[in-house]
Each structure stands twice: as structure tokens, then as C-alpha cells.
Amino acid sequence: MRRKGYFRRWWEQRSSELSNLLNPKQWFYDLLGGEAKTSSGVRVTSSSALLNSNVYTCASILGGDIGKLPIQVFKKRGSGLEKDDSHPAAKLLGIRPNPYMSAYTFKELLQVHLVAWGNAYANIEWHESGPYNGQRLSQKP
Q1: Is the pTM higher than 0.85?
Q2: Which site in 13, 62, 89, 90 is 20 to 30 Å from 135, CA atoms measured?
Q3: CA 43 to chain centre
Q4: Phi and psi of 19, rounded to 5°?
Q5: Is there a contact between 117 and 136 (Cβ–Cβ < 8 Å)?
Q6: How far apart are CA 52 and CA 57, in angstroms?
Q7: Residue 139, class by beta-carbon neighbours within 10 Å (0-12 exposed, 13-18 middle, 19+ buried)?
Q8: What is the pLDDT of residue 104?
Q9: DSSP β-bridge partners for residue 8
């Protein structure tokens, strides 16, 4: 009987608080187990953490180191592998993935997204003019 009263009080308290996904209440964070307030009372999110110079510097250093590394495309030859510079993806990954950034910047930004938000995605945008015409890689955080 006491549990029923506790649940009812909890539900009434939660129902009286208006909340949305852009500005959720603290109980929603607690329910999902994330982004609790710090001892100072400030809520730290991925976006606000990057405003901290220490966090941004760490993410930037990791991104810069990953950006320097080459991404190569290989093809299978018999029982071994051989580097394939003629593959269309090799140009995208090694030279210029899209008109807005170099391969270095693209890989660096992917790594910063991975550090800050926990994941990073790249998408090949295909055009109707052909399988390899006008393709480019774009990022979706």
C-alpha cells in the first residue's frame, strides 16, 4: 500500500512539470541516467563541454592526429591485398571528400564529433548521372 502511494506522488509530481526535449527537466535526465548537474549546479552537455578550452584542446589534438593518418583503399588480389588508387573512394578519402574541406579537415572533424558526441557518420551522396559522378562525403553529427 505504501508503494502505491509513493508511485502516485511520484507520477503527480512528474506530471505537473512541463518538459520538452529541447529543455528537459532534471527528473528526465535522472531517469535516463545522464547529464546530471554538477556540484556547481551547472548542467554540462557535449556542446557546452567543447566551450571549455581543456576539452576543446584534447578533442582538437586527437582530431589533428587522426586527420594526419592516411585512409587507403585496398582490393583483393588472389590470396593477398593490393592498394587501389584507382577506386573512386580512394580520391574521396585521400584528397578531397567534398568541395568544402580537405581530407585532413574531414577526418579531423569526424574525430572531434566522435570525442564530443560519441559517434561520427559520413555519407556518400550519389547523383543520378552515374555511380561515381558527383559523389562526395558529407558529415552528419
Answers
A1: no
A2: 62
A3: 20
A4: -150, 150
A5: no
A6: 9
A7: middle
A8: 93
A9: none
- Name the packing angle between helices 53-68 and 103-117 (round to 10°): 140
CA–CA gap between residue 135 and residue 123 (Å, rounded): 10
Cell, residue 66: 587522426
Segment 106-131, tens digit of pLDDT: 999 999 889 888 888 888 777 676 55
What are the distances in angstroms from CA 36 to CA 28, 56, 138? Answer: 10, 21, 32
Task: Answer for the pair 91, 75: CB distance below 8 angstroms, yes or no.
Answer: no
Give residue for cell 580520391.
91
Type of residue numbered 83: K
Dihedral sign of CA atoms 91, 92, 98, 100 in order: negative
